[in-house]
Amino acid sequence: MLNKASYFLQISTGADTASAGPTEETVSFFSLITSGGTGGIIIMAMLFILAIIAVYLFFERFGAIKRANKLDPNFMNNLKDHVANGKMEAAQALCESTDTPVARLLQKGVSRIGKSMGDISASIENQGKIEVQRLERGLPYLATISGGAPMIGFLGTVIGMVLAFKEMANAGGQVDVSLLAEGIYTAMTTTVGGLFVGIMAYFGYNYLTTRVESVVYKMEVSATEFLDLLHEPL
């Protein structure tokens, strides 16, 4: 009876051992960053700072462009009425009370009424360039981050690979494959971080550029309507 119990105990212990199997170690993203040495930590810190700057630029420009894209539907009709009735002071006051690129553009045109059409058109065009520059402020930095972040991440990968191969050369014929693999995937972490920041900045830049083009289109349409109004006999 005792022998049977010992036999079943051995079977049970063997089954438990087999079911346990090899244990897998999970590596956190933070440990990947810190295990890359000083160079990897510096690279990831740079990418983190660039990510913060990209997010700030996106939301700051998004809010500014959204405010610039708002225009009262009755603004042009009221402005046309004031100009047609010769009420230039009222037209100026209307433009000043409306804080949009279109209003500032037309205010410049209203201030030039009485001069030649070429002078009015040139002043509106110059003001339009100023407004576009205001709208695009910060976008070149976002474009630079979209292109520079992947390159910085790739630099970290190259540095990590160099260090990994250096360790392999120092080890001679006894290369620890696990140590080499750890160095490689640690180095690849910087590429993942750089691509993430770059893609985020790239899509943000293109989205904001599209929104700026929408505002520019409204400015062009409003300027054309204003110039057409001046060509009509008052």
List its traits.
transport; 234 residues; mainly alpha; cell membrane; transmembrane; MotA_ExbB_proton_chnl
Structure report:
The structure is a single chain. With 234 residues, this protein is an all-alpha fold. It has one domain (37-231). It has nine helices and no strands. It has helices at 2-20, 29-34, 37-68, 75-84, 88-97, 101-111, 117-135, 139-171, 177-231. Helix 3 (37-68) packs parallel to helix 9, helix 6 runs parallel beside helix 9 (177-231) and helix 7 (117-135) packs antiparallel against helix 9 (177-231). The longest helix has 55 residues, at 177-231. The protein starts with a helix and ends with a helix. The model is unreliable at 7-24 (pLDDT under 50).
Summarize the structure.
The protein is mainly α. Helix content is 83%, strand content 0%. It has one domain.
SSE topology string: HHHHHHHHH
Secondary structure: number of strands: 0
Overall geometry comes to rod-shaped
Mean pLDDT across all residues, rounded? 80
Contiguous low-pLDDT stretches (5 residues minimum) are 7-24
* Distance between the amino and carboxyl termini: 119 Å
Radius of gyration equals 33 Å
What's the helix and strand layout?
Layout lengths: L1 H19 L8 H6 L2 H32 L6 H10 L3 H10 L3 H11 L5 H19 L3 H33 L5 H55 L3
Helix pairs in contact: 3-8, 3-9, 4-5, 4-9, 5-6, 6-7, 6-9, 7-9, 8-9
